[in-house]
């Protein structure tokens, strides 16, 4: 990945949740290319990028997370990328659809942060990046659960940054808009066109563009950046 050229994570251990495909996979590949020891936490059966170790972990279950993290040793880099959608308008959304999205997108990230934080703060070094969304900043029709989970993750990012900053740990978020993935390419063309119409650049980013922002925040070049939300959305939400 050209965007990772010159970045060095040699000797550092990283966890990427949801790293089996899409943005998470691109992030994991970039970390591997930079020399990190990369561990991907994903549901059973997921295939990770070459050079990364796969772990079947349910991030919604605190015991599963604690056991997996505890078996690795010190972790210096964490990317909370795991996320799901269950789109439906508020009046039609079921309790399960609400809980499932909150549990994965928000509670899952909390479980991961809580599990790695003691090691990071004890060592005085750590980088945490959470994948949020512009829809967590602006809201989105039919995505009350998703927008709420991502908005909550923004608040969790800023709170963790305050709690861990004096202990050498930075915590930031990257907020994509629509990204050109296999999933979005399968959407109806009018939905992609709507995102294009919103964008100031007139084109949409790919997974490597989002991964580059995450990798920057994980690098030593971002040592004095914390508590921030970096939008990678081609100007969809300004």
Short characterization:
It contains eight helices and seven strands. The protein has 238 residues and is of the alpha/beta class.
Task: Describe the model.
This protein has a seven-stranded parallel sheet with strand order 3-2-1-4-5-6-7, sandwiched between helices. It starts with 12 loop residues before the first strand and ends in a 6-residue tail after the last strand. The protein has helices at residues 22-33, 62-70, 95-123, 135-138, 144-164, 182-185, 189-198, 207-218, and strands spanning 13-17, 37-42, 53-56, 77-80, 126-131, 169-176, 229-232. The chain has a single domain, classed as NAD(P)-binding Rossmann-like Domain (Rossmann fold, 3-Layer(aba) Sandwich), CATH 3.40.50. The mean pLDDT is 95. 42% of the residues lie in helices and 16% in strands. The longest helix is centred in the middle third of the chain and has 29 residues, at 95-123. It is built from eight helices and seven strands. 45% of the residues are buried. The protein is of the alpha/beta class.
Record the SSE blueprint.
Layout lengths: L12 E5 L4 H12 L3 E6 L10 E4 L5 H9 L6 E4 L14 H29 L2 E6 L3 H4 L5 H21 L4 E8 L5 H4 L3 H10 L8 H12 L10 E4 L6
Parallel strand pairs: 1-2, 1-4, 2-3, 4-5, 5-6, 6-7
Helix pairs in contact: 1-8, 2-3, 3-5
């Amino acid at each position: 990945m050209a965007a990772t050229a010159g970045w060095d994570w040699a000797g550092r251990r990283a966890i990427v949740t949801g790293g089996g495909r899409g943005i998470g996979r691109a992030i994991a590949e970039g970390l591997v290319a930079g020399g990190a020891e990369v561990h991907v936490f994903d549901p059973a059966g997921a295939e990770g990028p070459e050079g990364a170790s796969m772990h079947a972990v349910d991030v919604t279950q605190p015991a599963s997370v604690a056991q997996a993290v505890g078996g690795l040793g010190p972790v210096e880099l964490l990317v909370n990328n795991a996320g799901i959608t269950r789109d439906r308008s508020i009046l039609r959304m079921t309790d399960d659809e609400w809980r499932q999205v909150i549990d994965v997108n928000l509670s899952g990230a909390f479980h991961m942060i809580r599990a790695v934080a003691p090691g990071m703060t004890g060592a005085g070094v750590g980088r945490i990046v959470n994948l949020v969304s512009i829809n967590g900043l602006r809201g989105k029709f039919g995505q009350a659960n998703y927008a709420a989970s991502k908005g909550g993750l923004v608040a969790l990012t800023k709170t963790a940054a305050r709690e861990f900053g004096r202990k050498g740990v930075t915590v930031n978020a990257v907020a994509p808009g629509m990204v050109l993935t296999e999933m979005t390419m399968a959407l109806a063309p009018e939905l992609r066109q709507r995102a294009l119409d919103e964008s100031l650049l007139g084109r949409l980013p790919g997974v490597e563009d989002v991964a580059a922002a995450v990798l920057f925040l994980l690098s030593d070049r971002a040592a004095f950046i914390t508590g921030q939300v970096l939008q990678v959305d081609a100007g969809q939400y300004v």
